[in-house]
Amino acid sequence: MAFVFDGYSLDPQRRELTFQSNVIAVGPQAFDLLLHLVENRDRVVTKDDLLHAVWAGRIVSESTVSSHINAVRKAIGDSGDEQRLVKTVPRKGFRFVGEIISPPPGEKAPIEATPSRAPMPDPGLALPDKPSIAVLPFHNLSNEPQQDYFADGIVEDVIAALSRSRWLFVVARNSSFAYKGRVTDVKEVGRELGVRYILEGSVRRSGARVRITGQLVDAATGANIWAERFEGSIADVFDLQDQITENVVGAIAPQLERAEIERAKRKPTENLQAYDHYLRGMAKLHTGTREALNEALPSFLKAIELDPEYASAYGMGAWCYFWRRVNGWTSDRVEETKEGIRLGRLAVELGRDDAVALTRGGHALAHLAGELDNGLALLDRAVLLNPNLAAAWFLGGYLRAFRGETEGAIDHFNHALRLSPLDLEMFRMQAGIALAHFFARRFDVASRWAEEALRSLPSFTVAVAVLAASDAHRGQIQNAAAAVQRLRVLDPLLRVSNLGEWLPIHRSEDAIAFADGLRSAGLPD
What we know:
Blueprint: E1 3-5, E2 8-11, E3 16-19, E4 22-23, H1 28-39, H2 47-54, H3 62-75, E5 86-89, E6 93-96, E7 132-135, E8 139-140, H4 148-163, E9 169-170, H5 173-176, H6 186-193, E10 197-206, E11 209-218, E12 224-233, H7 237-252, H8 258-264, H9 272-285, H10 290-306, H11 311-326, H12 333-350, H13 355-368, H14 372-385, H15 390-403, H16 406-419, H17 426-439, H18 443-456, H19 461-473, H20 477-490, H21 499-502, H22 508-521
Parallel strand pairs: 7-9, 7-10, 8-10
Antiparallel strand pairs: 1-2, 2-3, 3-4, 5-6, 10-11, 11-12
């Protein structure tokens, strides 16, 4: 049965919105949002309701919800100023206030005779207030498919170099890499990621030679702004990356001062072998599984061996030890903790101006050495150095949650999501949001986000623990007990008495609430 209002017909079966027999183009999520508002027109629909109904519980930023509300309003001839059909209820949510005419089964809905309107496209994410760009994975044109990691590393370094330009909004690596192996339409990518420019390219590595091509496209029009080919020996790879960055920056903002371009050039290491091992480690790290981490850590340690001043490699190595400990994967907890702390300290000492080293090393020190305040200061400096580094924002969100700054933590997670709306590590952000809501005593919301994180990474012990404690506090004891059984399989040594050694929870009331929840769920003292 179609819902008819103000000359429009919304047909849930055919998933069509029409006006005067003309189909109105509307994105799938905007359609679901409108349908949910119409079906629940007798009440105010909260943001949490929309996240659950439209995004299946996945965390999205405030700007994503706002852009889809705007898309709905445009599709039905409404506006934020007029709010004739979709009303914003401040601090509460949204409500559909139009008059619905639902015909009896079998009857065709009456359509008012009013002038037809052109289909309205779904605008996607709103553009930031400064030039914005996404760098898509470069195609590996080498004869060896196993060289993918090298092409990916080229892209990561170009993203990192562009990110250091404060006047640019750069989508994070993990969201860009969601398009790897896919045939893409730059206009659609621009809408999905909320950016004006797209950088595409390819890498061909043959023996000691490397050829990199790149083209910069205006995502709004599809017009090619700039294209170039860069070729040299493998020893020149950093210079080639600098040339790409310089050309992209120059094409987007010709008026940019030369000093700003020079600041965007930053070589992580002069040792190409160390760089190669670092890239191999990064290629494995993002999945978060035990097997991937077991391959990533030796690569970072080898990079350090080859270049003892490679700050980012120290940071990633320290973070691997943190990830092993927090998931109960250590073979020797005491020795691995000491090694993680050692690598973390070297990362932040050697990388005072390296956002990656400060982010990963600082976060590892907060956990492994219990230096929560110091870790938070290091991550804040990382954000200052590279405001486009999504990991600095979401790992900073974790540390703020542990300090009890729950709303600030959620703001950090939301900003990370805007920087990386299709992140491969979304499970880390979801678990962090769950933790922040738990410490804010919003146990229903915390439980839902923890479940979302576990759909992507079932072995994430923090998410399992938050799920167990949240369900216990909200009276779902059977579910909580099942989660604790799962937790004890993942980490047999975890007890209520050693929670303080596991997570750096700053406020005593938060630690007590967490312990009480897990104890009620069945975790032994």
